[in-house]
Amino acid sequence: MEQTSDTAIKILDSLSAHFGTTGAHLWEVMVKFQVTSSIVSLIGWGGFFSILALYLKTVADKNYDKNDNAIHYTLITCMFMVMFVAVTIIGIDLQGIFMPEYYALKDIAVMIRG
Predict the structure, then answer these.
(1) What predicted TM-score, i.e. pTM, was given to this entire model?
(2) Beta carbons within 10 angstroms of residue 93's beta carbon
(3) What is d(CA 83, CA 79) in angstroms, rounded to the nearest whole number?
(4) pLDDT tier at 68 (50, 70, 90 boundaries)?
(5) Long-range pairs for 77-84: beta carbons < 8 A, 24 or more residues apart
(6) Rounded distance, CA 93 to CA 43, Å?
């Protein structure tokens, strides 16, 4: 762990020397990027799942008159699966908003591993 943190500090120092800024400023930029990235992802996934839910509702309404219970149960199952995936993905994006330092460190660790 010590070696990883030393390598992360060296990477931040070399990047800050390259861009002519300080390591602290570079760290602030990385943290702000994580927050912005999470917000954009949250909006994108929210829009995707809203459109998908609207589509499933439209399909369910079209088939409502046919009185076919198999279609309704299938659509209800699909809606619950979509809601589960949506909550999971949105939860990950919310973690990026509430803990941006962790994800900035994670990005540095990915750079270290190559």
Answers:
(1) 0.66
(2) 19
(3) 6
(4) low
(5) 79/53, 82/49, 82/52, 82/53, 82/56
(6) 10
